[in-house]
Amino acid sequence: MSDFKSNFWPLFVAALTLIGIVACMVLLWMAGRKKVSAGSDNTTGHVWDTDLVEMNNPLPRWWVWLFVITVVFSLGYLVAYPGLGNFAGQLGWTQKNQYEAEMAQARTVLEPLYARFATMKPEDMARDPQAQAIGERLFMNHCAQCHGSDARGSKGFPNLTDGDWLHGGSPEQIRETITKGRVGNMPPQAAAVGSPEDVRNLSHYVLSLSGNPHDSLRASLGKSKFALCAACHGMDGKGNQALGAPDLTDDIWLHGWGEAVITAMINEGKVNQMPAQAEKLTAEQIGVLSAYVWGLSHGSAAAR
């Protein structure tokens, strides 16, 4: 309720909760006092499906007391735990505190296990079956949502198995990426490039760098415009890992390829973000995970 800027909604929720509890007791009291006239056969006269009749029996005593106990328990629960608007509860319980306590307990239990990996080199962890099993589970929990369970990525999410790295593929660089995250920004360049025809010509030149089908005449006209791109991608188009600028010559396309896609990229730009994991994972977990990710694209080296 702390997200609300006024006291109306916390008070409204608290009042609605208490009114609901009181209404349950009133309903039970009214049901117990109401007398229904019954015939000599102890039925109310209501009949369904020809032969289903409603008996005039009172509620079982155990059912009534169970109902009362439930209401009393709900009142005690609302006193002990948050549930009445802004009231925090006498026990001071919060979801965040419970989560942090459980995470601290889990770290304490797992600390001896990760201590073994703390002194190992990433290359050694990539060969260790236990480290790889743990790394795989960490990957499935924290990375597979974007990169896929097979780590081959999808449109907009890099393939981690092919050896093509935007920010470098060494164990240290991978660890830095997981820890701090990355933000890739391709700014819109249409205004700087010139007319729409100039943008198309530049797109064909970019296609020519990787040997993809292109219009050679347009590519030759667009070559001079590539100087605007060279600041990040280099004059040879091979990219710059320090900036996260992709290699345009290797025929690996993160957001798709073709004149239309490249033209849209030049016109509109693109922003990609890899979220930092330092607050979710311990340094030891990140070490194991980075060794696992490194091993995905260095399988033969890890085996050796």
Q: Assign the CATH architecture of the largest domain.
A: Orthogonal Bundle
Shape assignment = elongated
Q: Main sheet: which strands, in order across?
A: 1-2
Q: What is the third-level CATH name, the topology of the largest domain?
A: Cytochrome Bc1 Complex, Chain D, domain 2
Q: What number of domains?
A: 3
Mind explaining what this structure looks like?
There is one protein chain. The protein has helices spanning 8-33, 61-80, 95-118, 122-125, 129-142, 144-147, 171-180, 190-193, 196-209, 216-222, 227-233, 259-268, 283-297, 299-303; strands at 43-48, 52-55, 182-186, 270-274. The chain has three domains: 8-80, no CATH class; 122-181 and 275-303, Cytochrome Bc1 Complex, Chain D, domain 2 (Orthogonal Bundle), CATH 1.10.760; 185-274, Cytochrome c-like domain (Cytochrome Bc1 Complex, Chain D, domain 2), CATH 1.10.760. It is built from 14 helices and four strands. A two-stranded antiparallel sheet has the order 1-2. The longest helix is centred in the N-terminal third of the chain and has 26 residues, at 8-33. The protein has 304 residues and is mostly helical. Helix 9 packs across helix 10. The protein starts with 7 loop residues before the first helix and ends with a helix.
List its traits.
single chain; mainly alpha; Cytochrome Bc1 Complex, Chain D, domain 2; 14 helices; oxidoreductase; heme; metal-binding; Cbb3-type cytochrome c oxidase subunit
